[in-house]
Amino acid sequence: MIIDIHAHLWAGSYNEDKIRIIKACETFEINRVYISSLLSYYPDENEIRMLNDLTLGFMRERPGMIGGFAHVDPRHGNKLDVIDRAIGGGMEGVKLWVSVHCDDVRVDAVAKRCIQYNVPILMHAFHKAFGQLENESTAVNIRRIALRYPELRIIMAHLGGNAYHGMRCIYDLPNVYPDISGTPSGRSDLEYALDQAGEDRILFGTDMPMGGRQCLGRVRDAAITEEQKRKILYKNALRVLGGKNADGL
Amino acid sequence: MRTDYNCYIGGWPFSLRKKASLDDLMSAHERHGFETGLVGSLDSVLCNDPLEGDIALADILRHTRYGMSLTVNPMLPNIERDFAKAGELFDYSAFRVYPSVHGYGFDAPEFRNFMDIAGETGKPVFIMCSFGDARLDYLLMQRPVDMGPLKEFLGAEHRNPLVLCNIRMHEIDSAADEIRKHQNIYIDTSELKHSMFAIDDLKAGGLAKRLVFGSFFPLFDFGAAYIQLEGVDEDLRREILNRDVLKEVMK
Fold this sequence. Notes:
The complex is a heterodimer of chains A (249) and B (251). Chain A is of the alpha/beta class and 249 residues long.
């Protein structure tokens, strides 16, 4: 079984993205993919509603295959309504991208609502040597918010971008689940992450439709046990999702 | 014969490469049915004298079924000495250049001088269009390759086969006309990860015939590169894995 905890629809190409995601699931036997929809770095409230409607629409089209994370912009006055509507519509988590750092005080209300709903937040995190966006979080920001809300389950995207930067920030935080999605695919990164954080928190993700098959290749080829692979590919995801939909898989 | 044209052995100073010996490379290759590869020296990339690492690599590869690429930094003075010395000490099948790491452009006179020398040999030139994800660099900062001069370089006639390694999909798209125009330009598969169905996309663009397999072992996961071929139709897959245009350069 495979659960992909981190994939997207891009509003500009969502029809093509849907086709590619479905094809990828069929080609690589991925059972369930968690989608959030993206467009601009600093969306307004209308854009957020449109994006979450795309996600909900895809979930309805493919109820077994597609799960959803609500794209929430913590700057917006209606952010809690967005979460309520999304969770009410069947989404299973919240996605924060790059409009504010994830430890910004405006995230606090989002964190509390997610704790109330018992759903995780997928937080973008990417430490870059160049090209860091103004409000793009790194694992340093993840650490701060994770310490502030130890009861909140946080999915740290992309192993923090650079695994060697990311893992040193969160290795000791049991509420942070690093996902391996995205294009960085340094050999030994996965094994390094396991060394640092243990086998019970690393999650499989692809960042589809922007590539993604390499993430599966690295798990398949990793010098780890079959049980560790199963944990990465789906067991840890079931736990971070709070056991929801586990019966259907 | 399945061939990996973009693999290395040696150490990398910025993150410990576990299991990066020749035995480990051979083990990864055997697991996926590869018989051989064109190996570069990771040590040489950052050596002040790249030949030091290449001499050590030649000793490791001697009497194996693997070919070797010579690491070239054209910005070093008197590189002619390196070619002469390398020719005396060991066999090598191709040149490998690292413009993003060694910091020069395709219009640099030193690079053009190297291409003149390489042209005399007819050996393929493997051009590393990137060397891993530059965003993750820390102590060493790559200077990403500028596509304008690269396209201009590719647009000119060259006597050698040219293999663009670690080139990304948007860069391939940008240079597609030049690549299509010249039959001696090839693309390795190691950085196709930015598209879920990259090989299908390249096939649609008429470029699949130019693909050769490269893993970028041990800096990338071998499996992360090999999975690019999954779901690709069998004939094309066989072609990519066994591309014989370059086979003549292998020992």
